[in-house]
Amino acid sequence: MQALLDAIAQTALPTDAQRIFHGRGGLHPGCEQWSLDVYPPVWVLTSFQPASDDELAAVHAALSERWQQLAPQQPLSWVYQCRHEGRTETRLMAGEVPEPHVVSAEGARFKVHVLRGQNHGLFLDMAEGRRWVAEHVAAHPRRERLKVLNLFAYTCAFSVVALQAGARQVVNVDMSHGAMGIGQQNHHLNGVAAGASFLVHDIFKSWGKVGRPGPYDLIIMDPPSYQKGSFVATKDYARLMRRLHDLLAPGGHALLCLNAPELGMAFLQEQMQALAPELAFAERVANPAVFADVSPERSLKVLVYRAP
What distance in Å separates the CA atoms of residue 73 and residue 298, rounded to the nearest whole number? Predict the structure, then answer.
């Protein structure tokens, strides 16, 4: 785990929520099980294999030494999460977690929860996707009339940055009451609540409520790759693509996101060619540098399509 310890020793004082070490990308042989994030002021170490007491002690020592150098007046706070064989164990290893715990990212503020569940309220790997949305909206010649549909909105980070950039309206859709509740809090944290609406809804039961405010100038699709009873990318992504023709305004854009290592770009591109051939592929949004992967096909895919 030396590469992880080296990353800790070299890190600067973090101000934004960010990944510090990405072992899963395969660029650090022997460290594939480890990732380290920081949701200031809390560090979160994730292991995809059970970690020994000696390994955790080594991480604690490295974090303690570096934190003493970076913030000598502040106590160290860090959390360990093990994800293995379908089970998740989370432990507070030192210090405390603020409540509420609010972090900054891309010039916005978001509420997070690092002591429960695998998803902490903000996807750090989607930082460049959020940046693309903000820049796209800000540069749009009709941004004061821009309408955005944010499907699988989770805690609505895309919506926050779109409204900050000047979008007129964002319709957020998700099946989770809890996630949408946090999403509403995130809008209030950033002073952009007026432009957002929140629809707790299963889109596969009815598209009427979703289509009514359209057509949309930008549609964001960021579904889970596999969530039993909700969404399975291999069969359900096609159902989203078929709706783009009816939901997207002329000249509009669609942002298609997929975080499934086993499915490459061709999975999205070939289906789009078959199901929405009128939409032209524009670009693949780069992932944050810290999330570099030995195989770009395995890493997060964020593709932009444009309507005629």
Answer: 41
